[in-house]
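Researcher: Next entry in the queue.
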Amino acid sequence: MPESPLGILHVDLDAFYASVEQLADPTLRGKPVVVGGLGNRGVVAAASYEARRSGIHSAMPMGRARRLAAPDTVFLAPRFDAYTDASRDVMAILRSFTPLVEPLALDEAFLDVSGCRRLHGPAPEIAATIRTRVRAETGLTASVGVATTKHIAKLASEDAKPDGLLVIEPGTELAFLHPLDVGRLWGVGPATKARLTRIGVATVGDLAALSEDALVAALGNASGRHLYSLAWNRDDRPVEPERGVKSIGHEETFPSDLTDRSRLEREALRMSEKVGSRLREAGRVGRTVQLKLRYKDFKTITRSRTLPEATGSSAEIADVARALLDAVDIGDGIRLLGVSVQQLDDAEAIQTQLPLDADEDRSDDRLERHAAVERSVDTIRSRFGDAAVAPAALAGGDRRPRAPTSTDWASTDWASSDPAAGEDE
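Model: Structure for this entry, 425 residues:
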């Protein structure tokens, strides 16, 4: 592959959720802050650098985090609206330099600045300016990696943390890459790393020293070829600004396993309400509704149904989610339930399509009336909170306040561009 110009940036906000909380409450600044599910089965979503000194990190069970935590550690439930607002401000700064911005999550993005050197200067200068503006305009700190490829830029930003800038000059990529632990490669999870360890691979250099055929024999065709290419910095993926959010959903890990099907149906309805509200807020609709369940033994399954037409209606999403739930065995209990909508499209573009016949026209009238009710509910909830209005089906359910254990998510399907992604158990 011909050498790429030094023009790819990976911008990663430091301890994002925790940093947003520290900015919102000055009394938290300098203190260890942990954000995540507060229940017994909660998981750490983010930990401030003060908290990380105690060994706490993201994806750690909250129970373990509490055991490791210093006495002054503050534990907070996530506030995704606040994080989304902060992310929007940062992304606007990035897009002021180039339209070629590919968000990966709320707190990170790739930029291709190779076409704007004349306007903003060389890539390292742009990276430094971005870091300065993010701090000055939002109060957040960003670490930035600058390289010739996306893969190296992301690795560089990881090594730059916290609050740093690392430039990997053209021609020095392999010297940077080969000493790294092989687990740093994009697509190497615990299962793949275990297989690599068994064949004597500890570093990226060890992997690069093998033949491609040997890797294919050990890992399979797609994964073997993918990792061999990355080990030699063969990564020609462009920055894709159109990538965007591919699904919107809500999932929760329950404080105790749910064995009552009627309770699970109410939870599916409540989550569908949240998903529909988020779709409408984003101006999106989707065609595929997916239900996710995790059993007591941690086995996880998904079931989905694709609709004839895209929807943003909470009621339609709930109907499909409950139908999917009715078709599965809940076994000895469900520890996690999730509802999401995929195959997203712009709501306005869908609404401009005209009905083909009079019956469809009348159906559209009914749907519009229903949509108007849901928009009114959204308005009330935005002013008075989620509990202000609820479907009648939830009126008899358990609506008492409880410690948040939820993880709201908007998936960018980061791994979809990688052949080996999602391969690890």
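Model: The CA atoms of residues 61 and 214 lie 37 Å apart.
Researcher: Noted, moving on.
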